[in-house]
Design goal:
three-stranded antiparallel beta sheet, elongated, alpha+beta, about 140 residues, 3 strands, about 50% helix, about 15% strand
Length: about 140
């Protein structure tokens, strides 16, 4: 199997592991009262970081600084949070560089895809060079 095919297969496996936005919308329903008093966000990890308890607890601690509460861990890729709309008023007092609306932890999906493409390219060059040298 060529390096490019390996990258395509890895990217396809990764895509199938996560829910599509429409599927998330169907699963996560909010009442009118929820939307009046709360805001919600999803924090994602492309590399299943939430499988590791130490990472999960660190993320929960970091999110609580801005008043976010864990609603549920959907899987090892996604956490769903909520906070009172009043929490927005405290955002200006957060530590410098803190993003209360961050949605990713660790490497993103686009970075993974780029790394896979580069590795596939290097693997293809290496295999081609190996074949050339063996002739």
């Amino acid at each position: 199997m060529s390096g490019a095919n390996m990258a395509i297969n890895a990217a396809e496996r990764h895509r199938k592991e996560r829910f599509l936005p429409d599927e998330e919308e169907a699963r996560l329903r909010y009442s009118a009262e929820d939307l009046e008093n709360w805001e919600f966000k999803m924090v994602r990890s492309a590399t299943r970081q939430f499988h590791k308890p130490e990472v999960l607890y660190l993320v929960l601690e970091e999110e609580s600084v801005a008043g976010w509460e864990l609603l549920e861990k959907l899987d090892d890729h996604r956490l769903r949070f909520k906070r009172s709309l009043r929490g927005r008023h405290k955002d200006e007092f957060l530590p410098p560089g803190y993003d209360p609306y961050r949605s990713w932890v660790g490497i993103s999906q686009s970075q993974i895809t780029l790394i896979l493409i580069i590795l596939s390219f290097l693997l293809s060059i290496g295999l081609g060079l190996g074949v050339y040298l063996s002739i």
